[in-house]
Design goal:
13 strands; 11% helix; Immunoglobulin-like; 1 helix; 4-stranded mixed β-sheet
Amino acid sequence: MKLILIAIGLLISTFSFSFEKKRGNYTRIEINSLQNGSYQLDFHSHAATLLRIEIYDERGSFVFTDKVGIRRSFVKNYNFSNLPSGNYTINLFSNREKLTKQFYHKQIDTRQLKFAADIYKIDNEKAYELILSSESNLPAWVYIFDSNEKLVHKEEIQVNKNFTKTYYLSAIRSDDFSFVVKTNDSSFRPKEMSKKKSNELYSSTY
């Protein structure tokens, strides 16, 4: 009777060990949607493996590739904000297998994002303070024209939801100036608003 119980015990312990070992042999891949048209790829495996990532659109056209190297886990964000809406496929190749994950991407219409541009003329100085605000981080271009509508200054800026800069224009021969701010989809010509005193200026200058 003792021999039978010992044999059964050995059989149960052997089965449990095999189950745990098989359960530990796992690979997981997830895609999480982030803000502003970005997606996070989250990969985990029981063993280190050489990874290569390929991304295709719904027509099967190649979009992007990424050679990651040998990893057990891997997390990275991919920006799809400039890609059209549609179904996309991520193929992840390792030493032993190919994993495929599909997801739907909806392109953000930046024209629907709120964007505000204000300009303030400084009292008793040939200076202007430009204040921009946006719901999203985006690039923009600032154009300054003199009273004859001649372009006197142009620069590219990054609006990280808020942007403030003071432009000193005393070196330019003109009694009046106008500003135009452009984004990828829109153009703004802010009207001159209430004046500010010099001691209220921000330190950023042109």
